[in-house]
Specification:
The complex is a heterodimer of chains A (381) and B (447). Chain A is an all-alpha fold and 381 residues long. Chain A has 2 domains: 2-294, ABC transporter involved in vitamin B12 uptake, BtuC; 298-364, no CATH class. Chain A contains 19 helices and 4 strands. In chain A, helix 4 (34-57) runs antiparallel to helix 13 (226-250), helix 5 packs antiparallel against helix 6 (86-108) and helix 6 packs antiparallel against helix 13 (226-250). The longest helix of chain A has 25 residues, at 226-250. By secondary structure, chain B is an alpha/beta fold. Chain B has 2 domains: 45-180 and 320-399, Response regulator (Rossmann fold, 3-Layer(aba) Sandwich), CATH 3.40.50.2300; 183-316, Response regulator (Rossmann fold, 3-Layer(aba) Sandwich), CATH 3.40.50.2300. Chain B is 39% helix and 18% strand. Chain B contains 12 helices and 17 strands. Chain B has helices at 8-32, 59-76, 114-126, 139-152, 182-197, 211-227, 245-252, 265-277, 299-305, 325-338, 344-363, 368-375; strands at 45-52, 102-109, 132-135, 155-158, 175-177, 202-208, 230-237, 258-262, 284-285, 288-289, 291-296, 313-316, 379-380, 388-390, 397-398, 401-406, 417-423. The chains are: A mainly alpha (381), B alpha/beta (447). At the A-B interface, helix 2, helix 4 and helix 10 of A face helix 1, strand 2, helix 3 and helix 4 of B.
């Protein structure tokens, strides 16, 4: 099974199956509504892209949310100026975030380690503050950039008379809200998985891993590492921009809070939670965090009451009182506890847990975990 | 393990086949749920979505709004003493739920962020089947959620939102606002300011940097400049800044003798407290006492600001000390439930819930187009604000506005606002066309 999964067609097929059946297998978890499914796929792309930089080169960017925000703004402007079709929006989102990544990466990558992290954080906060107050005419500040009836939308207007009310985003007539929006994002995610898988197993990917394990040694062997790290940074920024423009595709609104440092920190959490340097770990991390954020935060004492209704009266009150600390507004607390447990007991994230389980139960298959392509690269720093 | 050979073409075929197979059930599911409009209630209950800030700068208001919503649900379901249902001029509601269906609710946290608020509203609409969304303690959030509700065909009853944009530039057919707006604050406050502070003043604005702050600054500026005041400067401050000292220092040297704080919630509490700590209120500038004006005021904020609020002028939508039948009934049942009087945010949210329920009852259906028609141009009384009209042109309620002042000799910890004047509805009515905007269509949408 494992050997089979490591071959490309099967890996892709299995991955596509899991993603496309999400509305079915997420139903028991109460997470099978379009908005959350869209978030699952979009943040999976974001984390996957981040992992190309952090997981492969070991460069920890603390400002990746800036590219998410830039992608969103570019996409919404494409909806406002040109057309409601999503393809130009995705193109502009990726192009602009790629451009910014090139600029920020060119400067930040002159340093490594903590200095690189601080530089990227500073750039991201700069972008956030620009979007929040300085560039209000472009970003509409705190209110967020939204579609209006007065938007030019030159291409749409040239082709057809605008209807009453605000138009919705579409892919050649197919509306991008609800389930169709999810399937669109899912297809994009599968393509991203394919690209990211190819990068992982390419000579380029191996070079990046080499940089992670010992950059000085790479330099001594005559390798100029900077173009490689810069390429990884730009690719990862473009993934983030793609995720950002998908956020705008499923909900045409861009707000500055998307670029805040908390959002940058979130993607680091996602990646570490799922497993740094693994192909699907970051995606799992993204799912866990988004699930907590959307489902756990919505629990209130009433839902807990009905959940614990099988307990006798006294016990039920205690159970509700204790557990209500960890749901609703307290969902951050649950996430924090989970994060601590994972970092302490499973430093390789959820993927390490998965490997330990398969090793215990699937042992004897002869595959040494070290030879598995998904094995975590030991951080050299 | 047997080796399975796989060609690229075979993979493509298999992928396409599985895609079709997966998509097929989706279309069946949608067909099965086909309804005349989004989230049509089919069982014995109807779900309302309460989307309020539980974290962030407006969390206090959000908590009070949620209390009011829960009370409204109780009253609609015939529990408790009925509150304003007894004084409301429309007698369509019977206390047996809405249209015979029991009212249930779901809650969400807007975090005072547009993104989070829309995600939360989407969850309520897509997962919990909410037929109406209400809440919001920020105009940025209200406008964002209102836009979403227009797209999905779910009615949005705005809670605490004071920006002109909500029922002006960004008005929507599916959005309704009971709360007053910044323009009306200006109309109400103008004559009082001229009377109390004189006509030769220089004002300095500190403004929360989002659509509410912008429109309030503009409205108050227009009013005061109309009185002959001079505007020295208007500075934008980020929402939830916490420390305003860097914005307050320049005020003292600017030559202004009035500071206008276009802040709300914790922002206003912080900026006012810091302004007073800077000794601004004890100062004399241009031979006049330095004054602070807070155009939008609430009792919760007064509670937070404590002593500093005394003598400060502002406007408010409603105050619990009002003595009309609706207000007393509401204060009584809210007090019995929670042990303290409600805030203006609580009142507007309570009234909005009742008005929506009443409109459904009068329309005889939950179908949004009919409910919208029932709300548009609806004239009512007995809800604490005197005779009120839900204006059809912009979905803004036209009603009296209170001009208040921080109470100098408070008799209790809640008796913090003294009503200076109840400005009658005629004086705060304006032409809906001045802000532009377009309500858009009312067509029902399936979701």
């Amino acid at each position: 099974m494992k050997q089979m999964l490591s071959r490309e067609p099967f890996a892709l097929l299995a991955f596509s199956l899991v993603i496309l059946t999400m509305p079915i297998w997420l139903a028991p978890l109460g997470a099978n509504y379009p908005d959350l499914l869209q978030k699952f796929t979009i943040y999976a792309i974001f984390a996957m892209g981040f992992n190309i930089l952090f997981g492969l080169t070991g460069y920890l960017s603390f400002g990746h949310a800036a590219f998410l925000g830039i992608g969103s703004y570019a996409a919404v402007w494409s909806f406002k100026l040109f057309t409601m079709n999503v393809l130009p929006a995705l193109f502009f989102g990726v192009a602009f975030s790629g451009l910014f990544a090139l600029l920020i990466g060119f400067i930040s990558l002159r340093r490594s380690g903590i200095y690189f992290s601080i530089l990227t954080l500073a750039f991201a906060q700069m972008c956030y503050n620009l979007a929040y107050s300085v560039l209000t005419p472009i970003t509409n500040g705190e209110t967020g950039l939204q579609l209006t009836l007065q938007d030019p939308r030159i291409i749409d207007r040239a082709l057809a008379e605008p209807g009453k009310g605000l138009p919705s985003t579409e892919l050649f007539g197919l509306s991008m809200s609800g389930y169709s929006g999810f399937y669109f994002c899912a297809v994009v995610l599968i393509v991203c998985f394919f690209i990211s898988r190819r990068i992982f197993y390419s000579p380029f990917g191996l070079t990046l891993r080499g940089i992670k394990s010992n950059q000085s040694r790479m330099n001594y062997t005559g390798f100029n590492t900077r173009p490689y790290t810069l390429t990884a940074f730009v690719i990862s920024g473009m993934f983030a921009g793609l995720a950002g423009s998908l956020l705008a595709v499923t909900d045409p609104l861009a707000g500055a809070e998307r670029m805040q440092w908390t959002a940058s920190g979130e993607v680091v959490l996602m990646t570490i939670l799922g497993g740094v340097g693994t192909l699907i770990g970051p995606m799992l991390g993204a799912w866990i965090i988004k699930y907590f954020e959307n489902i756990f935060s919505a629990f209130n004492p009433e839902t807990l009451q009905s959940f614990f209704s099988f307990l006798p009266e006294g016990l039920r009150t205690v159970a509700v009182d204790v557990s209500s600390l960890f749901v609703g507004e307290g969902w951050h607390l649950t996430l924090g506890v989970l994060f601590m447990l994972i970092v302490i007991f499973l430093p390789g994230g959820v993927m390490e847990g998965w490997r330990r389980i398969t090793r215990r139960f699937g042992g004897g298959s002869g595959t040494k975990p070290a030879s598995s392509p998904n094995a975590a690269v030991q951080p050299a720093e | 393990m047997s080796r399975l050979t796989m060609t690229r073409r075979g993979l493509l075929k298999a992928g396409a086949a599985s895609g079709v197979a997966l998509a097929a059930p989706m279309s069946f599911i949608r067909g099965a749920h086909a309804a005349d409009f989004c989230n049509m209630p089919t069982g014995s209950s109807v779900t309302l979505g309460f989307n309020v800030p539980q974290t962030g700068a407006y969390a206090d208001e959000g908590a009070d709004e949620l209390r009011a919503y829960k009370l409204a649900v109780k009253h609609l379901n015939g529990e408790g003493d009925g509150g304003m249902l007894n004084t409301f001029t429309s007698k369509a509601l019977k206390g047996n739920g809405v249209l015979g269906k029991k009212v249930e609710y779901v809650t969400g946290d807007t975090q005072t962020k547009s993104d989070a608020a829309r995600a939360s509203a989407k969850r309520m609409i897509e997962k919990d089947g909410a037929i109406m969304i209400t809440g919001g303690s920020s105009s940025g959030v209200a406008v964002a959620v209102q836009g979403l509700c227009q797209e999905t065909g779910v009615i949005f009853m705005a809670g605490l939102t004071h920006s002109n944009d909500t029922t002006g530039k960004d008005k929507k057919r599916y959005g309704f606002r009971h709360f007053f707006n910044a323009y009306q604050s200006g109309l109400a406050l103008g004559p009082i300011l001229a009377d109390q502070l004189g006509k030769e003043r220089s004002a300095y604005h500190l403004t929360a940097d989002y659509n509410w702050g912008w429109t309030q600054e503009e409205s108050i500026k227009n009013t005061t400049e109309g009185l002959g005041w001079n505007t020295v400067n208007a500075v934008r401050t980020p929402l939830g800044a916490g420390d305003f000292s860097q914005y307050l220092t320049p005020v003292l040297n600017s030559g202004a003798d009035v500071l206008i704080l276009n802040h709300y919630g914790k922002d206003m509490v912080n900026s006012l407290t810091q302004a007073v700590q800077f000794g601004m209120r004890a100062k004399q500038v241009n031979g006049k006492d330095f004054e602070i004006v807070v155009p939008l005021f609430s009792r919760l904020m007064a509670q937070g600001a404590g002593e500093n609020i005394k003598g400060i002028l502002g406007t408010t939508n409603w105050n619990w000390s009002l003595q009309d039948a609706g207000s007393t009934a509401f204060v009584k049942s809210f007090g019995q439930e929670y042990g303290f009087p409600p805030s203006q945010a609580a009142q507007t949210c309570y009234v909005q819930t009742l008005l929506y329920a009443d409109a459904c009852e009068r329309a005889g259906t939950f179908a949004p187009p009919q409910v919208i028609a029932a709300l548009e141009g609806f004239e009512f009384d007995g809800m604490g604000n005197g005779k009120t009209l839900y204006r059809a042109a912009d979905h803004q309620c036209m009603k009296d506005v209170l001009v208040v002042r921080g109470n100098e000799n408070a008799t209790s910890q809640f008796d913090l606002l003294e009503v200076v004047k109840i400005v009658p509805r005629d004086q705060v009515t304006y032409d809906p066309a001045i802000f532009g905007g377009d309500l858009g269509p009312a067509d029902a949408k399936a979701c």
